[in-house]
Records
---
Amino acid sequence: SFSQNRITLDIAKARDTINKNIYGHFAEHLGHCIYDGIYVGADNQKIPNRNGIRLDIVEALKKLKTPVLRWPGGCFADTYHWKDAIGPREKRKAIENFTWGGVREDNSFGTHEFLELCEMINAEPYLAINMGSGTVQEAMEWVQYVNHPNGTSHLTDLRQQNGRSKPWNVKYWGIGNESWDCGGNMTAAYYVNEYKKYATLATSYNNSEGLYRIAVGPGTEDYSWTETVMREVPLKRLEGLSIHHYSVINWSAKGSATGFSEDEYFSTMEQAWRMERMVKKNSEVMDKYDPSKKVGLVVDEWGGWYEVEKGTNPAFLYQQNSMRDAMIAGLTLNIFNNHCDRVRMANLAQTVNVLQSVVLTKEEKLVLTPTYHVMEMYNVHQDALLLPLTISSSNYELNGKKIQAVSASASKDRNGAIHISLVNMDAGKAQEISIDLGSAAVKTVSGRILQSAQLQDHNSFENPEKVKPAEFRKAALKGKELSVNLPAFSVVVLELK
Ligand code: AHR
């Protein structure tokens, strides 16, 4: 059966650019994201690598047009001492990663390796400063070590000795992570005072280097935290405010990543839709203190979170990635695009082998997940002009509950091509959608779709291409009207020229 939906593009109101950083990623020292994921060891003869960094992952992340990568955490960041992980590898201090499973890490992947990875994939690095167990001095020295010109101090001398003479000029710096919980269990009032010390002393007094300093915001719908940060921190010391939101059904019963019911799927979609409200409500508070929208909302952790795969270390957060995750990604990215006046960056948690990954690895094998394909299909929106739209959508109803079934966003790229991304959350019904293109002069339509027979379908090491994009033919252009038949639980990106 079909339902009727209508979308109207308002091209005359187009004004904001979709910051490409909305398509960012997050890589933490957690499970096999870094070690035995991105980093396989510099003497690894079995898996092709450069200085230990896996080349097939580099290829995949480049193809995705990964714009920005956050590191080294997460909760891990608030225990991380960057000086333990520079210089000759054999002299680096091993640490216990007691945030994630108490495993030993030899620190062979450190600042140089991470920044080399970013150069290999053409992504901007985003470093998370240890506010929880570190010091202002340590943070200041990290900024100097990576950013200051040669000859300015023993820190830049040390950088040179360690093989890097040019500064990296890292722009994005997070100050603490989830400081209300794993980052130190602080109150908002306490956090802002700490934040101000870091934001003032790790840069020059007027931040003439132009660092983009990101403060910790809430990870729940606690808008009073946002209020405190926005009220107390002078705008000249703040460029970004981070929020986190995971689509988790229930923290004490998260359910399986692949063995889930339609009811669980529905709950996940409800949770994913909450992002819309969180973005709007945080923006409202920010508008009050920053009406010119100087400060960006940075959603630096988002994604689905389920029980770990059977037989894997519970602290490693390794989970499969199904069509359900593709739906989370399609919906969430549409939300970010539509709010790009305030949302300037987002980082999917996490890149490889952890939570909602884009890449899974097992020894020399690599799998691209359904989420990878959505991010790849959507990368046409990066740095494009947002075309505002209004949508009237039917509902997806299940067991007396309902959510909006269709989500959409649209943009126009530098060459004038229009892209519309559409998601049909409904697990049972296709959607007939008519799109009013308004003043757009359009002659042709083409598209790609991600769909599969079952919601639970995923890519495994045995069957790595079960879910992959295909050509989409169910869009027809009749003058200024586009009619689309969007299959149940599918993600489509249309290109209009
Ligand atoms: O992404 C996993 C963890 O989730 C991060 O370390 C933390 O910031 C959040 O609670």
---
Amino acid sequence: MAVFKLDNVEDLYEIGEILGSGHFGQVREVRERATGTRWAAKFLKLRRNASSRLGLERKNVEREVEILQALQHGNIMALRDVFENRAEVVLIVELISGGELFDFIAAKESLTESEAIEFIEQILQGVGYMHSKNIAHFDLKPENIMLSDKDSLLPDIKIIDFGLAQCLTQGEEYRSMCGTPQYIAPEVINYTPLSVATDMWSIGVITYILLSGMSPFQGDTNEETLRNIVEMNYEFDDRHFKQTTAMAKDFIQKLLVKEQSERMTAEECLLHPWIKPLTKKQAANRKRSSINMRNFKKFNARRKWKMSYNMVSACTHLSRMQLLCKTRDTENQELRQCESDQEDTETNRASLMRRRLSSSS
Ligand code: ATP
């Protein structure tokens, strides 16, 4: 068992304002007493005993720490130090002050495809780096893509929240029942082995939303969304994609591929002509096309509203569905038997379940 520093974190850091809340604790700004440097501290509550439902299992915290320790990249939140006491583990991490990428974009009047690509390229660099170390994030979604500093003209992307990340070992299968319906890949719903390609699917969904303000598989209920994903039921509706280049659509199409081995890898994405144009014409097209800002603002407002609206049922239903799915014969049968649900937001209980389920798979 890893032992973290036992010092009292408050002796070394002055605790400041709350920056955000996760399902297992808060993230606060802190100031290092010795140097005056500002950091963020992620307080993770530990489960007191095996029968308790509150808090995180220590082994899950250790995994998150080990993964962050293994990752040193400009587009990934850096870990500085780890402290523990009986009740919690405190991660001292790089302070990321630019907020979420989607909020930054939604505040703009307009954005060309080339400007959007600058961000996507950085996401790909961070994800490509973690994949080169066989680490998969498994929770890529707009909430986990932040910016270093929103005052800069082109802020750096910072990928956060490695709570569901896994270091994949060759020859070992990893299955999971976790994620947010809109962003999960078919292999998650089908409870078949996951891989780093599972993250690439999520990048396809994020890119689709970024360009159109529409979520590719979104149904009226979570069940419908999940069905759309397993049936690959999505399209590039002309109304929402009229300003989008063919190259951008090609990029997305090569990520929203059911078969994991056929999806583009992060490395391949970085060489795709939409990201790295081969001709002047391709480069010019990207500058002329713009993202659907009206829709995007609407999408983001709805996303923020859903985030603040605590609903318990979604993930619980997802997990229950997936448990059912494991034992059912056909996909159609599986989906028919599932209960309907309203939204795909996660809550304390839902996340608790998702982490517990993920750690047991
Ligand atoms: P979840 O339960 O959603 O998995 P979590 O408990 O793992 O969340 P994070 O997602 O890592 O927690 O952080 C919660 C929130 O705190 C983020 O959405 C973000 O707003 C804020 N936050 C996290 N890390 C930082 C950071 N390094 N700098 C600034 N704010 C941060």
